[in-house]
């Protein structure tokens, strides 16, 4: 029972297309007769079911969709609907395989003791110096002095405060 709970909690679900903020903004700006162009079919939904709901929804609003590798998507015939559902299923499969491989690679790297973070821009001596100098120098001058961004200096100072 506990293993199932852990698995359920670790799976991150993509929100359906209509719940993604930028997609909602795009929908609000689309007008009848306009044609959004997407690079891949999976950009239209989180899974095959979502894609198969999104394209007809757009079509009902008089909005045709162009997927670059596929061209203009027409849902006028049963054969076209079948082709679209098959392509949506393949897109979902590709995405799931990509996620699975990424997770396996991260797990392997972690088991080998590799650090999964970006390399630090400063060493421990520099970070200690930055914290010591914060009362005499501005954040901007510290960033210039150590050739790092303001965000890096702020992050170091925030970490030192905790």
Main attributes?
162 residues, mainly alpha, three-stranded mixed sheet, 59% helix, 4% strand, disordered N terminus
Structural summary, described in words:
Helices cover 59% and strands 4% of the residues. The longest helix is centred in the middle third of the chain and has 34 residues. It is mainly alpha-helical. Helix 3 links the parallel strand 1 and strand 2. Helix 3 crosses helix 4. The chain is elongated. It has 7 helices and 3 strands, in the order H-H-E-H-E-E-H-H-H-H. A 3-stranded mixed β-sheet has the order 1-2-3, with no helix packed on it. The N terminus is likely disordered.
Task: Give a concise summary.
This protein is mostly helical and 162 residues long. The chain is 59% helix and 4% strand.
